[in-house]
Write a structure and sequence with these properties.
Elements lengths: L8 H6 L3 H9 L1 E2 L1 H11 L4 E5 L5 E3 L2 E5 L5 E3 L2 E2 L3 E2 H17 L6 H13 L1 H4 L3
Length: 126
């Protein structure tokens, strides 16, 4: 069992705000909201989906995980995406843009903490 469901333990331990990161991983958002969140930090980047836990990214696009392998078509999701996982994948691309590598190191965790906190009004339902 992970310290934060949906997050690597290494990142959970290094996080400056594990309570907020935990909350982000519990909040479910629509496909539209996930795409708005991606565009908040990575305007104009291509977004695709795949049907298993975990995502991926490159300098040209981001791939978000689809819960329970559910989609109507290749780019139409049925159900909700976890805000924390969307933010995790965004953090990978922001780290790559800065340092030209992907990792779950301290730099990645700092980027993730920053975007989780700064985007809270967007994904947190009052």
């Amino acid at each position: 069992m992970r310290l934060i469901d949906g997050e690597y333990d290494k990142v959970a331990v290094a996080s400056s705000n594990p309570a907020l990161l935990t909350l982000a991983h519990k909040v479910l958002i629509s496909q539209e909201s996930a795409e708005q969140l991606v565009n908040l930090f990575l305007p104009g980047i291509s977004i695709s989906y795949r049907g298993y836990r975990g995502g991926a990214g490159s300098s040209s696009g981001i791939t978000l995980p689809v819960p329970d392998n559910k989609w109507q078509s290749q780019n139409t999701v049925i159900g909700k995406l976890r805000a924390g996982i969307v933010l995790h994948e965004i953090a990978h691309l922001l780290q790559y843009a800065k340092s030209k590598y992907f990792s779950h190191d301290q730099e990645f965790t700092q980027i993730l903490d920053r975007i989780v906190a700064s985007s809270r009004p967007f994904w947190m339902i009052p």
